[in-house]
Amino acid sequence: MNQQLNENYYQTSDLSLATTLSLFAPIEEIDRSTNPRKALFIFRKTPELEKLIDQYFRNEIKISPQTYFNQLRVVKARLYANE
Fold first, then answer.
1. pLDDT tens by residue, 27-48
2. 32 within 8 A of 13, measured Cβ to Cβ
3. Could you read off the pLDDT of 54-64 as tens digits, one per residue?
4. Following CA atoms 80, 52, 25, 40 in sequence, which dihedral angle do they give, to the nearest 10 degrees?
5. What is the value of pTM for the model shown?
6. For residue range 5-15, what is the model confidence (pLDDT) as tens digits?
7. Fewest 10 Å CB contacts: which of 9, 15, 19, 59?
């Protein structure tokens, strides 16, 4: 991604964080071009997303385990569909 894109998008390779964020914001893209063994989950950067990221790392987001697990399956299906 070029610098302009990085200013408008947030990217993470953390599957747990990406799964949690994807419950509240759509994954714009999954990039595997730099390293096929490591995916980058790309989200559009918004004030709400930045707040969610802070809440995630402060352990303030409460999600039911079943909701999280179901979303993890959705994210993994999307991740491995492009192989």
1. 999 998 888 889 999 999 999 9
2. no
3. 999 999 999 99
4. -30
5. 0.88
6. 578 999 999 99
7. 59
- The tally of domains found in the chain comes to 1
How many residues make up the chain in this entry? 83
Fill in the amino acid letter for 63: I
User: Residue 76, Cα to own-chain centre: how many angstroms?
Assistant: 11
User: In this structure, what are the phi and psi dihedrals at residue 30, rounded to the nearest 5 degrees?
Assistant: -115, 115
Structure tokens at 4: 């302009």
**What domain range includes position 64?**
3-81
Helix (H) or strand (E) holding 11: strand 9-12
Query: How does DSSP assign 19-82, residue by residue?
Result: HHHHTTS---EEE-SS-TTS-EEEEE--HHHHHHHHHHHTT-----HHHHHHHHHHHHHHHHHT
What is the reported pLDDT for 43? 97
